[in-house]
Amino acid sequence: MPNDSAPAAAGNFRLDGTVAAVTGGASGIGLAVARMFGAAGARVIVMDRDGAKAEEAGSGIPGATGVTLDVADEAAVDAAFAALPEIGVLVNSAGIALRHPAVEHSLGDWEKVVSVNMTGSFLCARAAARQMLAAGRGGAIVNTASIMGLSGGGLYPNISYQTTKGAIVNMTRALAVEWAASGIRVNAVAPTYVKTPFIAPLLAQPELVRRIEAMTPLGRLAEPEEVAAAVLFLASPAAGMVTGHTLPVDGGFLAQ
C-alpha cells in the first residue's frame, strides 16, 4: 500500500508564499539562509548594513529584495520593517565580534558588540513581532546564538561576543514564552566555528583550525549551508511544536 505521509511531511519544510526577512543576509550564514529560504519557496528580504551587497545577494535569489539596514539603529529598524510586506519569518543573523582580553576590552568596543548582537536582535524581533501580532497569523523568529553563548570556554578571549550570544539564548526563551499564545515561535541556532568570512582571521591559522577540529567529535568545522538547514527547520511548519529552543549545530562540540 502506498504511503503518502512522507511526501506530505516533506512539504512541511517548505516556506512557499512566506515573506522571510534575514538580517546580515549579504554574507556568511545569513546569505546561506537567504539562498536556502529562496529554494524553499520563500519571498526573501535580504537585509544588511552594506546595501550594495544586500542588493547583490538579493539579485541572485529569485523574487528576493535587498534592503539596507543597520540593526543597531532603532529608527532605521522600525522604518525598514514598516516598509516591508507582512512577514512570516525573521532570521536574526547580523553579528560582529571584537576580540580582546577582558582587561583590555574598551567600553566602546563592548558597546559596539552589544548594540549589534544583542540590541539589534531585540529591535528586529520586536519590529517583526509587531507585524505578526497585528496580522494575527503567528510567525517564526530564529536568532543566531553560538556555542560560545553556551560555554564559558574558548580558544581565545572573546568576552563581549560570548556575553551577547549567551544573552541571545535567554532572550530567545523569554520571547518564546511571551509570544507563544499568539502563535509566534522563537528559537535559536548555536553554530560552532563556520567556514565564512566572519572567522577569516582564524581560518588563516592552520594550527588553530587543527585544534578546533580536534575539539570537535565530527572532526571538522561547519559549512554555512549546514547551519542554514537547521534554521530552515526551525522556521518551517516542520518545527510547529518547537519554541524557546536553542539548537547547537556544532559537530558534537558541546556534548563532551
Automatic annotation (TrEMBL):
Cited CDD domains: SDR_c
Any single Pfam family the record assigns to this protein: adh_short_C2
Entry keywords, A to Z: Oxidoreductase
Coiled-coil segments on the chain, per record: none
Superkingdom of the organism of origin: Bacteria
Gene Ontology molecular-function annotations: oxidoreductase activity, acting on the CH-OH group of donors, NAD or NADP as acceptor
Entry-linked InterPro entries: NAD(P)-bd_dom_sf, SDR_fam
Family recorded in the similarity comment: Belongs to the short-chain dehydrogenases/reductases (SDR) family.
PANTHER family given in the database record: 3-OXOACYL-[ACYL-CARRIER-PROTEIN] REDUCTASE FABG, SHORT-CHAIN DEHYDROGENASES/REDUCTASES FAMILY MEMBER
Name of the protein: SDR family oxidoreductase
